[in-house]
Amino acid sequence: MKYALDVTSPNSHEVAIKLEFTANWDNPILEMPVWTPGSYKIRDYSRHVISFSTDTDHKWKKISKNQWQITASKGDIITVSYNVYCLDLSVRTSYLDDRYALLSPASLFFYQRQKETTLKNKEITLKLVYPDDWEIFTSLPQKGNQYIAEDFDMLIDSPIGLGHKSVVDHLDYSISNGDGSEVPCRIALIGHRGNHNLEEFKEFMINLQQTSIKMLGTLPYDHYLWVLYLSGGAGGGLEHKFSNFSIINRWYFDQKDKLKFAKMLSLEAHEHFHSYNIKRIRPDQLGPFDYSKEVYTTLLWMAEGITSFYDNIFLPRGDMIEEDIYWQIIAKDLTQLRTIPGRKLTSLSSSSFDSWIKYYQKHEGLDNYYVSYYLKGGLVAFMLDLEIRKQTDWEKSLDNFYQVMYKQYLQSKEGFDESMLRQLIEQATGTTLGQFWQKYIDGTAELPFGDYLSEIGMIIEPEEGDVPYTGIVTNSNKNRVSKVRANSPAMQAGIIAKDKLIAFDGHEVTNDSYEKMLREIGTGKSFKVHLIRDGILRVVDMELTSPKPEKFVIKPMDNPSAEQIKRRDQFFYRD
Questions:
Q1: Is 516 found in the same domain as 418?
Q2: Count: domains in the chain
Q3: What average pLDDT score do residues 448-473 get?
Q4: Which residues contact 279 (CB under 8 A, 6 or more apart)?
Q5: Is the pLDDT of residue 272 over 80?
Q6: Most exposed of 1, 108, 280, 566 (fewest Cβ within 10 Å)?
Q7: 437 and 302: one domain?
Q8: Digit-coded pLDDT (tens) for 452-461
Q9: Is 70 exposed, middle or buried (0-12, 13-18, 19+ CB in 10 A)?
Q10: Distance (Å, rounded) from C-alpha 26 to C-alpha 70?
């Protein structure tokens, strides 16, 4: 399979692609993926294919939404030309404008299929034609004027970044690996400049890598690429074996704004930890992939939740943020979890399994019966780490499981049976986790987070609010209902998402008046809510209940024991 991509017409947002391949069967089928690993949603990338044609010796017909069949004989050399529309700036899709491009391979490339058989294990070459004043960044190895992917899976796992030199800032460095080798690395920041200092940023990425080495012995790759697209607001990242592509707010690099800076670092730490967790240490379902349909697993809480635990804890362990900032991050997650009624109805394992139809296809009522395996998974992973430490008198931790699994991966390169995860953790740590699993992973028991915090001399304190509870989540202007919490006063009153709020107790609802009026009305009082739904004025009665905690704060106990302080030092890698 030989691909040539042309991005020299950026104002059309079309990538022109030419494919030359040898037919592996009579009448081969070219099939485009419908999803990309790490983002569990059917995205139907073929909807962006604008044109499709073959050379004059071969005819074609489209036989499904993402399949084109070529009339040819086995062994024929076939040339296909097609264009793909690219104007969706995310790490899961492709984007092209006059400043830069982010090319997600799953949204661009085909593999061969014949009935139930696919051909994805052959070498693929890739040439790129781009403007002379642009630069290119990809983890694919280069040979002459082309890039080489050893198979289709490697191609899909190797996004391509391009940008005009005026909006690109990059540098190269190397880092000493745990085995004595040197690992070449590259950082590229693409987009209109924000407040970053590339040299300072490089030192933080090195620190992340060194923290990984401290935990797992070596880096899992022989080269690595960090690509960050600088944005005015969008965000996100996607894991790869040899690279980390992310989108970050361009103003999050200022260390004076500690929470925003930590958010930026944790995103990079998250995608980097994935180079171990899931890209290499993985359940069997998560590689090699079937790109034609959903791939189900109950372990996305491991993939994303445990990674979310490590992306945060690596920051204070590597002295990249202060401990107090770490606890603010965890407290914020705990506060968010406690507002989601779905935490009591959906387990982490079922949340993982249903990600295809729930997590990636959110609607206004979802929080009432579903919970994110990122959010809850990260907090449960925190508890799991401390549960292991507690059962082993602080001789073992979740780190030990990953150390064992990483060594096994280096030897076998194989995944593991997802039904064996608990047993594998127990074997690596000498623990018994059946009850923990039943309650917090396969079950929906409330998380006793405070009990685990006490192990390291920390406590949770609620900061009580003074606004009576309605159960309404509004837009930023406070005049439109975004969500209604289950079993809340608003739900009992019949208020629904998308209602426009007009008045409380006869007084106009505004951004300034919203909370003032609720305080004035008070807990236990019934009042009339005027709203508009479907262009019709409606009036409902709602009775307020007591204020809910606005947020939780995690802080040290007043008089922690010497043992608790020692354990906290161990938890943060403080020798």
A1: no
A2: 3
A3: 96
A4: 157, 220, 239, 240, 241, 287
A5: yes
A6: 566
A7: yes
A8: 999 999 999 9
A9: buried
A10: 9
Q: Which residues sit opposite 226 in a β-bridge?
A: 187, 244
Q: Is the per-residue pLDDT at 234 higher than 80?
A: no
263-267 average pLDDT score: 97
Instruction: Render the burial of 359-372: b for 16+ CB within 10 Å, e for the rest.
Output: beeeeebbbbebbb
Mean pLDDT to the nearest integer, 402-419 = 97
In the 8-state DSSP scheme, what is residue 360? T
Residue 502 shares a structural domain with residue 423: no
| Claim to verify: residue 33 and residue 89 sit in the same structural domain | yes
Residue closest to 376 by CA, chosen among 406, 417, 412, 336? 336
pLDDT in tens, 36-90: 999 999 999 999 999 999 999 999 999 999 999 999 999 999 999 999 999 999 9
CATH assignment of the domain containing 532: 2.30.42.10
Within 8 A by CB and 6+ apart from 414, the residues are none
575, pLDDT greater than 80: no
User: Smallest Cα–Cα separation from 291: which of 114, 32, 94?
Assistant: 32
pTM: 0.96
> Which helix (H) or strand (E) is 437 found in, with range?
helix 434-440
pLDDT band at 177 (very low <50, low <70, confident <90, very high): very high
User: Kindly report the CA angle at 39 between 35 and 40, in degrees rounded to 5?
Assistant: 70
Q: Are 440 and 378 in contact (CB under 8 A)?
A: no
pLDDT digit string, tens, across residues 366-402: 999 999 999 999 999 999 999 999 999 999 999 999 9
Q: Where are the beta strands (DSSP E) in 75-181?
A: 77-85, 95-96, 100-103, 111-114, 117-119, 124-129, 134-138, 142-143, 146-149, 160-164, 168-176
Q: What is the DSSP letter of 173?
A: E
d(CA 5, CA 543): 61
Phi/psi at 351 (5° precision) = -60, -40
Q: Greatest CA span in the chain, whole angstroms?
A: 83
The answer to whether position 54 is within a domain reads yes
* pLDDT band (50, 70, 90) for residue 464: confident
Q: How far apart are CA 12 and CA 314, in angstroms?
A: 42
Q: Which residues of 543-552 are buried (b: 16+ CB within 10 A; e: fewer)?
A: ebeeebeebb
Show the domain range for 349.
296-461+554-575
Give the C-alpha separation, 554 to 330, whole Å: 8
Neighbours of 87 (CB within 10 A): 13
456 plus 558 within the same structural domain: yes
For residues 419 and 528, state if they share a domain.
no
- Percent of the chain having pLDDT more than 70? 100
Helix or strand or coil: residue 161? strand
Question: Using one digit for the tens of pLDDT, what is the confidence trace for 314-331?
Answer: 999 999 999 999 999 999
